Amino acid sequence: MTMNVIAYGTNMIWRGQNFHFTRMQTRIFCTIKTKLSTSYSLHISKNSIASFLDYCSGVHILRKLHARIFVCGLENCNYVGSKLLQCYARLSLLAESRCVFQRIISTDHSLWNSLLVGYYRAGNYEEVLIRYLDLKQQKIGLSDSTINVSLKSCIDLGRFYFGTEIHVDAFKFNLNADCFVGSSLIKLYSKNGKMDDATKVFDEITNGDLVVYTSIITAYAQFNHCADKAFQIAYSMQKKKLQPNRVTLVSLLQAAIQLGALLEGRAVHGYAIRKGIGMSDEIFETSLMDMYHKCGDSQMASLIFDKMDVRTVGSWNTMIVVYLQMGQALKAFHLFFQMMRQNIFPDLLTLANAILSCAYLNYLHQGKSIHGYMICMGVHPDLVASTALVCLYSKFDVTKAKKMFKSLGNKDAVVYNVMMDGFLNNDLYLEAINVFCEMVKMSVKPNVGSYLNVLSAISYLRDFRHAKSIHGYLLRHEFLINLEIVNQIIYTYAKCGYMFYAEKVFNRKKYKDLVSCTSMMMGYIWCGQHHEAIVLFRLMQKENLNLDSVTLVSLLQALSFLGCVGSIKEVHCFIYKGLLGRELSVINSLITAYAKGGRIDLARHLFEQMTDRCLTSWNAMIAAYGMHGNCIEVLKLFEQMKSEKVTPDEVTFTSILTACSHSGLVEEGLQVYRTMVEEYTIVPCEVHYSCIVDLLSRAGKLKEAYNLVKSLSLTKNSSAMCALLSACRLYADSEIERGKWDEVAQIRAMTKDIGMKRTPGYSLIQLDK
């Protein structure tokens, strides 16, 4: 056999096997070949053959050595036999190893251990357990090494009950107190969540060493309900003069993450610095970064990353995830770009996080480039990377995202949630509900995010039947202990207009937080129950809940409808005392509330005092003047908007056109309409057309108004048709009016089907100035 060896620095690498030989090892290996090809090989001693077997990495030469063992009469030698077994196991030649073992089978524990260790190192865990049972049948006893390697195989295979049987055997032979056996038992029980049993195993070990203490610390660190015990064990370990090593410290960092204990995590870091442990170790430094980030000190995580001498893909991935979870997607993307410039080959996790950062940043071109890189490099995306791609494309091309989602084989709850979220962001609410139904049908267990998404879709559609169905499903599966889900159910019932069901869910809650109370307030307002909304707000004040801007906006809506200017002033004072005076949404609601209460002067004063005005602020003030019939001020504000480079939207033009229509300013209104279409390229909506029809009718241009209505689709001409018929009745144009009543009936039926309601006019006489 020709040796296939490459010179590499001071080492020799055997191609295809990933074995690194030193020059001395290579010399020994060359000696094997030489001796086997000469008659001198007949005089090889058992020690020489054993040495040759240690460095043998090829099947052909191994078989030659095996033949020479027979020639030299060493086939029954346990020492040589154990080496031969290990070599066959290392090369995964199970049939040959079984044959060898059967020829030299004996009661020698060392031979059995060699066989089991060889199988374990080769990853043949099932074979280890089979041979373990064979050993028990021989009734020659068990050693600590046999028990230990068999337990490790059970752990790797997830064979918990087999492991408990081995524990019984260990107890019979008084091996349960052995440190290595004890460590493996601790890992077996802790990996299966049996921490009480793991603790009992630890207590049975009288003279625990560093390995045992590290094992129990690692076990406690996995669970947040007992992670504090990891630090207690570490303290008692130091009292026994046992110094933690790198593995111990990594486990303690994991315990700090479970507890969110930044102080303890810093203490571990300080100890490592003092003792010089792990400061140049990539695993330890990556664990430090992870701890600082998850315990709330992301700045320190960034500093550790910057000072690392050697950065592997794992450390880059950790830092990219840190930035993503901090909401700093741009930094995450720049870090990925820097990594690529340093010629560090990314793994699938790196690429998935890079695509995710592009999705958050709306970087479609860059995200597609990364996807193209994966295709060119022949990298097949796993479920994590596929989920990131679905997230990216759902923001730009939901059809492509849906196609990619459908092509996935095994889907988990995360990718279902991402697809639902994509449909929600594209106003495809029924599609989102269908994805949830598919998820349940495919027996993928929904999580909290899944229920929040589907309830959100139902609330947009105001689908009461689906709301009750999901509510019943949640009751059966005991998901109503989650506060977020309960609050979303309340919001969904309220949005559907079924306050009776919303109240039932709300009243059953033991703890009523700000979100649930605000959802109820919004529901009362949507259903026209403004007094109930105000009463609930008073109860919230008694409970000393920290009110936010959403709650106050809802309260102002209720007060403005009832025309309670005095109460609005109270809320105004409360806003400034509660330091919410800078919340634009609250100030905008105050402007609207004062205007509806008849105090346009206070509304104007608020608007003029604002240092930062958003578009909603301008719209609120324009609408305020419009509802007071002051169209001249509306047009002045519109001109001021344009001079201050504020771009109007559909709502702005709706308020202006409505004001012009109600004030009879025909030419001004038509000019505003032309500005909207020609200068700002805004496509008119139904309300815009209704205002234009009204303006044309007021100008006596009924034929033009009629032609405009005829050109509109049925979904956009209902309000315009009503405005035209009213104008015809007013101006006694019976020719146009005649024969249109069927269309009127058809439009009214359509508005009922889609849930539209006619809001009657009303007048408030305001007494409290």
Automatic annotation (TrEMBL):
It comes from Senna tora. PPR repeats lie at residues 209-244, 312-346, 412-446, 513-547, 583-613, 614-648, 649-679. GO terms for biological process: plant organ development; RNA modification. GO terms for molecular function: RNA binding. Keywords: Repeat. Gene3D superfamilies: Tetratricopeptide repeat domain. The keyword Repeat applies. This is Putative pentatricopeptide repeat-containing protein. It holds the Pfam family PPR. The keyword tRNA-binding does not apply. It comes from the Eukaryota.
